[in-house]
Specification:
Chain lengths: 306, 337, 356
């Protein structure tokens, strides 16, 4: 296991490296970065000075080396958006809110999709199954921002149930639901098809022949096998949520997390901040990926023991 | 009156399969009985309906299959018909009637240890606690001839050989000391040497536990060694039901004769392997007359238009319970020409 | 001799069920031997399958209608996508007191909603199709090379794929668009950049498993050149998985475009897509919900239909799935029959009681 982990970590480092280099390259393609930072009325002197300050007057190679050296120290420079606060620190300040949102959303998705999927699998072809499938498909077919806005509309405008924006955890409820819905759609379908496959297998028939109660056959025998591919897909959903959907949900619900920050940073061309954000997100993605693999190896005895 | 009664009665069982290409009448009319402690072989080629029958007995018939007629009775109580049937089946399955399947690899759950899969039987039927269940399981593993049961208890199916897994399955089937063991081709997936071991084991267990066995197979060699009676199936129906000795000595039905004739023998040199020409009928449109008619060397006109019922074979000693579904069954019992 | 049960016996005539069995068996065998047969047999019944699966059928019809509208938009849309002015702003739709001139009303800038729906569908579908084509072709080629060549080429190509798969897609896409500027072309590039890996992986998988088949080896022994082997023999295996994947990716991509447009980094004025229309800002959404809801629902319906279509595709091309589906619907039918018979029996019994 140790060697495997080491291998995956190494791969992960390469990925993070690759991503940050990619972003570095892209952002340097823009042209003269100082034009985005200074107002149009700024004088040529000011531009030259800023350029020197920020190191943009050096050669690309030099900038790259500086960048890598800084990245290793977790120093991505100072954010231009936040009046010269350290970029990395800024990212870390906003991270917790995003983590809360994703944790909430994925917890809801987990708790809802497994029972629904199992339920549909035990009654394939019935009206209930068809309804569940349609609802799941509707969940994953709706553009997330649209769903989020509808939810926002109904809960806060039409019915005035909850407030939004930064605040205590109660403000997280509806955004978490909005985040969970497409995931629920996809995961329910996955659970359903995995369970149907397992329920059709020979060992389930043999277990029934042994006289094992139907409930146990489904919940224990079939699920234990179906949970293996489910874990992998759940991990992927979490990554999609973390690295993508937070941007949308945070924008709609005014939740001040990393996604919101990222959008602003991108629009305002705060390169240092962008680099720091991408770095942090890439690391999280890699960590979760490795986590998925590790968990998978742990729960499947066929893999674990060979 | 014999001291053994019938524990299992299959009464004109009919099972259909609803496929896209039409309804397949897999089991058209199957009736036989098994007495306490008796080993009955159910013999037939692939597609004859023997596995379907076995699964119907155990209540494992699932879509696209459905039981559409007849009854299966365990000690007089129906397992198929009536409101109480489902509950009777629940009570009886795994405890009084147990089943061993063909492929030991896929019949075991790959992610659980065999120990836990055995223990759950005890926990379910006998309400034992963990320690007791474990002890009983170890006893059983020992009984079926598995060395070092304590170590095996903690292993997973993929860590064991095919023969050992089959022994485990047998152990699981015997856990609650059932009165009937339904064995669906238990040795087909195994090597010949292992096959012999398993058969020996089954014979031993049958003696010591007074176990009735329904042994399903296509291998006549296996049946000869282990069965008291043999029921031969063809195209969804029983065509002959006789004691093993009688069947092998002088089959009453042409199909049985054909099967026996096509079994290669080591003591007779033959130039070519003998087989029965033709193939079984399409059970979506079963023929009007006898299903074997088109392949039967002894066919007469009546065979093509009328279905022969399972009737007592004439000229048999009292109480031999020998039946065959052939209009010409009697012809095979006149002293051979 | 007359009692010899082993003398061979010829069939009664060529039309007995035995003969049908034999034909069936031969067909089945042929289907197994060379996978290309399988595709043919699968597609033979495709249209029949479509009719019998109601949701798949409705989805297909719906999509065809949308396709036609999108294609014909320049000719059948009542107005241009940005044709209007403040004087025609905020006109109500037909169900709210409006006129047939603007069936769905107009938006805050005075543009006709129905026309924009048509133009928007056109752009949305166009982007989806083009991205799938670009990403698909690129990915399939990479996958073919990787799978067929194997060895070092395979390893390096797959490393590249793995690395790109691990990128945080949406984030990278946003950054790229911010840098190269938002336009249809850049949108297509960015979306394809994020989508090709799936095709590569799938293709490689199919090639690897197809390579194991004896007929590939046979083709090579006979002397076929590698490229010929690849295209003639392996590609047909690919079609069914590829079709399902392409369809699903199409759905995912039009949703991705909608999200990018929502974040302001997708299509820009005067281009219009369904996603862009559905992306009204908060105030606009709350004051005039129908402006965002109509296109949003329409987009959802398209994606939904695509999903139904893909599941139908999967069932139609996989015989095992077809049987399973048939089994459950057959149960439904026989259950209904049984219930009907039970009801009839009850009624008859009651009738008997009443009259006796």
């Amino acid at each position: 296991m140790g060697r495997y982990l080491g291998q995956r970590l190494f791969q992960g480092i390469i990925v993070v490296f690759g991503v940050t280099v990619l972003v570095f390259v892209i952002t340097r393609l823009v042209g003269d970065p100082v034009n985005f930072i200074l107002p149009l009325s700024a004088s040529e002197e000011q531009r030259v000075r800023l350029r020197a300050d920020l190191g943009f007057d050096e050669s690309i190679l030099r900038q790259f080396i500086d960048f890598i050296a800084g990245a290793i120290r977790l120093d991505f420079g100072d954010s231009t958006l936040f009046r010269n606060q350290d970029a990395f620190d800024t990212v870390m300040n906003f991270l917790p809110k995003t983590l809360q949102l994703v944790a909430g959303g994925m917890a809801i998705a987990l708790v809802v999709s497994i029972p629904l999927g199992a339920l549909a699998a035990t009654r394939p072809g019935t009206m209930l199954d068809k309804v569940l499938i349609t609802v799941s498909l509707a969940g994953l077919a709706t553009p997330q921002f649209f769903l989020a806005q509808l939810l926002l509309f109904f809960t806060s405008v039409r019915f005035q149930i909850v407030q939004f924006g930064d605040g205590p955890w109660t403000h997280l409820i509806v955004p978490s639901i909005a985040m969970a819905l497409p995931a629920i759609g996809r995961l329910t379908m996955v659970v359903r098809s995995a369970m149907i496959d397992e329920l059709n297998s020979q060992y389930v028939k043999a277990a029934k022949a042994k006289g094992v109660a139907r409930r146990r056959v489904v919940l224990v025998h079939a699920w234990r096998n179906a949970s293996i591919p489910f874990v992998t897909l759940f991990g992927w959903e979490t990554i999609r949520a973390l690295a993508g959907f937070t941007l949308v949900i945070e924008a709609v619900f005014d939740w001040p997390g990393l996604g919101d920050l990222a959008i602003t940073a991108i629009k305002e061309r705060d390169f240092f901040l962008i680099q720091a954000i991408v770095f942090v997100v890439a690391i999280m993605v890699v960590v979760i990926n490795i986590g998925i693999d590790v968990v998978y190896k742990l729960i499947d005895p066929r893999v674990k023991l060979s | 009156m014999t001291s053994t009664e019938n524990v299992l009665e299959v009464d004109h069982l009919q099972v259909d399969f609803l496929t896209r290409r039409g309804v397949v009448h897999a089991v058209r009319d199957v009736s036989f009985m098994i007495a306490s402690g008796e080993t009955v072989g159910l013999v037939g080629e692939s597609g004859s309906g023997k596995s379907v029958t076995a699964q119907a007995i155990m209540g494992l018939t699932e879509l696209p299959g459905r039981i559409v007629g007849g009854d299966v009775r365990w000690k007089g109580e129906s397992l198929v018909v009536g409101k109480a049937a489902a509950r009777t089946m629940d009570r009886v399955r795994g405890r009084e009637i147990a089943m061993v399947f063909q492929d030991p690899m896929t019949s075991l759950n790959p992610v659980f240890t065999i120990g836990s899969q055995m223990a759950e039987i005890f926990r379910r039927h006998q309400k034992l606690d963990r320690r007791q269940a474990r002890e009983r399981s170890l006893d059983l593993l020992d009984l079926v001839g598995i060395a070092n049961p304590a170590a095996r208890f903690k292993q997973h199916p993929f860590e064991m050989s095919g023969g050992m897994r089959q022994r485990v399955l047998i152990a699981m089937a015997l856990a609650c000391e059932p009165e009937l063991l339904v064995a669906d081709e238990p040795t087909t997936a195994l090597d010949v040497t292992i096959q012999a071991q398993i058969l020996e084991l089954l014979a031993e267990l049958q003696q010591s536990m007074k176990l009735a066995v329904l042994f399903i197979t296509h291998d006549l060699g296996v049946v000869a060694g282990i069965c008291d009676r043999v029921a031969v199936m063809y195209a969804g129906k029983i065509v002959e039901d006789a004691s093993a000795h009688d069947l092998y000595a002088k089959p009453a039905h042409p199909y049985s004769a054909g099967l026996l004739g096509s079994t290669p023998r080591l003591d007779v040199r033959a130039e070519r392997l003998i087989s029965i020409a033709g193939s079984p009928p399409d059970l979506r449109m079963p023929p009007v007359g006898c299903a074997y008619a088109e392949r039967c060397p002894s066919v007469i006109d009546r065979c093509l238009t009328e279905q022969p019922a399972l009737r007592a074979v004439p000229g048999q000693p009292e109480g031999s319970r020998r039946v065959a579904a052939c209009f010409r069954a009697a012809d095979f019992h006149t002293p051979a020409s | 001799m007359t009692n010899d049960p082993t003398s061979s016996w010829t069939p009664v005539d060529a039309n007995t069920s035995t003969q049908h069995e034999r034909d069936d068996a031969t067909h089945a065998e042929q289907a197994q031997e060379g996978r290309p047969y399988e595709v043919r047999i699968a597609t033979k019944g495709l249209f029949g399958e479509l009719i019998s699966d109601r949701t798949g059928f409705i989805a297909a019809v719906f999509l065809v209608v949308v396709l036609v509208i999108a294609f014909a938009a320049p000719w059948i849309a009542p107005y241009g996508p940005v044709e209007g002015n403040p004087s025609t702003a905020r006109i109500s739709p037909i169900w709210d007191g409006g006129t047939w001139a603007h069936v769905f009303g107009t938006d805050a800038q005075g543009y006709d909603v129905l026309s924009r729906l048509m133009w928007g569908s056109r752009t949305t579908l166009l982007i989806g199709v083009v991205v799938v084509l670009v990403a698909g072709i690129f990915g399939v080629v990479v996958g073919l090379i990787s799978g067929y060549r194997g060895g070092r080429t395979d390893r390096w190509l797959m490393r590249w794929v793995d690395m790109q798969v691990a990128f945080p897609g949406l984030l990278i896409a946003l950054i790229m668009i911010a840098v190269i500027g938002a336009s249809i072309k850049s949108l297509i590039f960015v979306l394809a950049f994020n989508a090709w890996m799936v095709f590569a992986r799938m293709t490689r998988g199919v090639v690897l498993s197809a390579k194991e088949n004896p007929y590939v080896e046979a083709a090579e022994i006979v002397g076929c050149r590698p490229r010929r082997v690849m295209f003639l023999h392996i590609l047909p295996n690919l079609t069914s998985s590829l079709a399902t994947l392409a369809v699903l990716e199409f759905a995912r991509i039009i949703l991705a475009e909608a999200t990018l447009s929502f974040l302001g980094l997708g299509l820009q004025f005067p281009d219009v897509s369904l996603g862009l229309m559905a992306s009204a800002g908060r105030e606009a959404f709350f004051s005039l919900p129908r402006l965002a809801v109509i296109p949003g629902v329409f987009l959802t319906l398209i994606v939904l239909a695509v999903n139904f279509l893909s599941s139908w595709l999967r069932v139609a091309t996989d015989p095992v799935e077809r049987e399973k589906r048939h089994a459950t619907s057959a149960k439904g039918i026989t259950d209904k029959d049984a219930a009907k018979r039970a009801r009839q029996a009850k009624r008859a019994a009651r009738l008997n009681e009443a009259t006796s």
